[in-house]
Design brief:
alpha+beta; 2 domains; 6 strands
């Protein structure tokens, strides 16, 4: 039985190493060249998800590549949240700066219709709180 998973929106399989299911190329050797498997955005030159770009105050982030449960954001102060709260945060960042070409790509991978106002934490924003 072959182990299966996903990497940045692409199906992958394990056979001595993780490989892309469609080409059997090594994930470890080629992942930087692959665009998002969900929206097709290439990574930025700094290695960030293409649909997110660089977000001020954020140390690490992932759009989820089509799976909101995999999305997360970790701030420079160490706070972190994931799932729909992260997707809502990305959506809110896009809505606050539509005039910026870079910001207009934020959440291309997401699926939230609108984001709530205020601070975004796992405690006060779950999927039931999104409108």
């Amino acid at each position: 039985m072959t182990a299966k998973s996903k990497w940045r929106g692409h199906p992958i399989v394990f056979s001595d190493e993780w490989q892309y299911a469609d080409t059997l190329e090594s994930v470890a050797e080629t992942w930087k060249e692959r665009p998002c498997g969900h929206c097709g955005s290439p990574s930025t030159p700094d290695g960030h998800d293409g649909c997110l770009g660089t977000i001020p105050g954020v140390m690490n982030a992932c759009c989820g590549h089509g799976d909101s449960a995999d999305a997360y954001v970790q701030f420079e102060n160490g706070s972190r949240f994931g799932g729909m709260a992260a997707v809502a945060f990305f959506k809110g960042k896009r809505n606050m700066s539509k005039q910026s070409r870079e910001s207009s790509r934020i959440l291309k991978c997401g699926s939230v219709q609108t984001a709530p106002d205020g601070p975004y934490t796992d405690d006060n924003y779950s999927t039931k709180n999104l409108r």
